[in-house]
Amino acid sequence: MAKQLLRVMAVLISCALVVGCAVPAGTQAPSQESAQATGHVAAAGTPWKDYFIAGTLSANDKVRIQDDFYTGVLHDWLVERNESGVTEDSTTVQRGNQINDQMLGLIEDTSITGGSNAEDLQNLRDLYGLFEDWDGRDVDGLEPLVPLVKRLQAVKSLDEFTQWLCSDDYRLTANWRLNEEGQTDGVALFGLVAYTNLDDQSAPKDGYVLEVGPPSLNLVSFNTQESELKQEETLEQYRAASAKVELAWWMLELMGYSEEEAGDVIANAVALEQLVGEGLSDGSDSYAEYTPEQWESLDAKGFPLARIVQTYGYEDASSYNVYDASWLDSINRLYTKENLDLFKSHALIGLLIDSASILDSNAYDAMLYADGSSLLPEDYMTDVVTTSDEETSVELSAQEQELYNLEAGRAAMGTLNSTLPTCFAKVYVDNFYDESLNERAKELVQRVVDQYEEMLAGETWLSQKTRDAAIDKLKAIHIQVGYPEVWPDTSSISVRSRKEGGTLFSEIRRLRDLEMQQEQHLLLNPDEGTYWSDCMEVNAYYTVTTNSVVIGAGFLGGPYWPEGATDEQILAGTATMVGHEISHAFDSTGAHFDKAGKYKNWWTDEDRKAFDERVAKVRQCFSAIDPLGEGPYDGTVVCDEAISDLGGLKVVMQLAAKNANFDYDAFFRAYVRAWACISTLDTARELIATDNHPLDRDRVNVPLREFDKFFETYGIKGGDGMWLAPKDRISVW
User: Fold this and answer.
1) Three-state DSSP string of 449-466
2) φ and ψ at residue 416, rounded to 5 degrees
3) Which range has highest mean pLDDT (19-28, 240-249, 285-294)?
4) Which end of the chain is more exposed for a tag (fewer CB within 10 A), N or C?
């Protein structure tokens, strides 16, 4: 396929065929009539309209909280953003921006020395200096990447490719890291993440758990037939894949590939994912746990995953856990000399995509354009990635230049956090985190856990045997709050300047290596510190195979736990999230794992049947909700998150009931504000197609309808949009 045709396809699919592209902050929002024409409808299965779509709600629209509580509470917040032209915003984004802006100001203010963490702060400043050295980055161009690409191009046999996969060339590419959702963020042939063995943290000899995930399959949707693009979910998956293909094509072109050669590379990579995907099961019964001896025997079957794990430094794991183990069978069958070019092409694209953000300005701008994260006008980004001249004729207005600088600064903080997570967290906690919040958060967590035990004990539909097992699992949950109790030693970290031979590309890869070595050391020596790479993410999550919950400092603060917060605000913003994550231990996935994180049935047959019937009701409810009037949720996909939303809110409502003076109105309104979100129609469509969470409106309105106290507080009755009859309620717990 010719380059021009490919580029036209990618841009048209992602921007023209899907009505309504993202509008940069500071520009005029779409009119009310325009917004209605692009999906301003009542969601089937509910009476709620999609007022969370940018431009759809005006000051004149009156929304009763009894009909749509989410929109009614957020009315002024949504209108303010529509009137100012903001098309993407949320509580999570606001908290993330707060952290990034605080850290950016600290790093740029060199009059602040950093106190006890002066070396950590200096390392962050030095890495930020390399990030901001655009002149130097542009002089380097793509040259730092060239040796790696040439080594991959020189591979002529399957054995040589195995050696390449086991080398630093691939190991120091970050796209094989699994995130908290158990997926890779880039284009990878496998995914890995390690967790401390929580059965006995005092015995390092027991090793740790290594989670192993399948290929990302982030490119395969580019192979979608045109006739299938009429389905909204398929179209969004195609758009996501086409963005990666667009970036890969641009990078291949910069690396000197011809149009035909670039097309072949992309076609090969997509073909490999297609073949791997064809061999996958539905994942329902293919979980596998391997002992070290069993793991070592896997290489004889084809793909050298055991050898890769060993050379990457994870040979001391006590258990290797694989979700959807069918992908191992699939990739083993495919790992042959006949398919060598497919594997090389897939690895090359992963390397190029992962490297784009840490090379020159052309590659960086192409990355922003391809993933849709830029706030800048689309015609500017299009010109940047299609011009072959060194100087672009497109000029930014003062406002657009300010946006570009803001983007780059915040993106730099993201790079610093992901590359030097311990340094970043130590400096943030030392300068911006309320130390007393950590103890208060731990006390809050214990309140939720105690109430959860009481809730489980009162579940009369369970037998005593299953109730006892559930409570045992609850009590065994390991919960990390705030930041590590013992910080890992960062004294050996030092960022080399350009004068010392360092470039952003080389230093990030070198620092990744140091971080990996530290992580692997602490996995075996947990008494020396806790390696916690994501405590600054605005997130909380549950890990099923370690039966653990993480609630980091990034989440604790800002709108989730504001300064001077009332108990109502704390319960609404933070406790419900704690309850949500604990509930994942008892959702339709967590129910398969015992208190030690082992895949084991701890249910009686009768209780499991009753549980499955309750889960089915949740699936059916969300499968009946069509949030944008374009197609319903996949109830199976969003089920676990919906169960956890319901469970988290229920346990906090029980806590609230113990306070005779509890202000339910303040609590319910604070709960909505914790989920405040406005987005473009495109973003909402993409989330429905690719995310396992319902949209934020439905994460609020649906679970609130489970509680009589909510109806009593606002006088909600039959005929109101928020009313739900008791017989139709869906809580599992």
Assistant:
1) HHHHHHHHHCCCCCCHHH
2) -60, -45
3) 240-249
4) N
Q: What are phi and psi of 684, to 5 degrees?
A: -60, -40
Helices vs strands, H then E, count in the chain: 30, 9
**Residue 625 in tokens:** 């909700």
Which domains are delineated in the chain?
3-94 (no CATH), 145-359 (1.10.1380.10), 433-482+532-728 (3.40.390.10)
What is the tens place of the pLDDT at every residue in 374-427? Answer: 444 445 444 544 444 444 455 767 877 777 778 788 889 999 999 999 999 999
How many angstroms separate the CA atoms of 5 and 12, rounded? 10
* Strand-strand pairing, 208-213 and 478-482: unpaired
Terminal Cα-to-Cα distance of the chain (whole angstroms) = 54
Tell me if 483 sits within 8 A of 551, measured CB to CB: no
CA distance 87 to 26: 9
The predicted-structure confidence for 166-213, as pLDDT tens digits, reads as follows 999 999 988 899 887 777 878 998 999 998 765 444 433 467 889 998
Summarize pLDDT for 128-167 with one digit per residue, the tens.
999 999 999 999 999 999 999 999 999 999 999 999 999 9
Strands 540-543 and 548-552: antiparallel
Task: Find residue 320's DSSP bridge partners.
Answer: 210, 290
Eight-state DSSP code of residue 575? I
Distance of alpha carbon 46 from alpha carbon 23, whole angstroms: 28
Question: Which helix (H) or strand (E) covers residue 192, if one does?
Answer: strand 191-196
What pLDDT shows up at residue 20? Answer: 25
Return d(Cα 71, Cα 52) in angstroms, integer.
7
Q: pTM value?
A: 0.86
Kindly tell me the burial class for residue 316, based on how many C-beta atoms sit within 10 Å of its own C-beta (0-12, 13-18, 19 or more).
middle
497: left (phi over 0), alpha (psi -120 to 50) or beta: beta
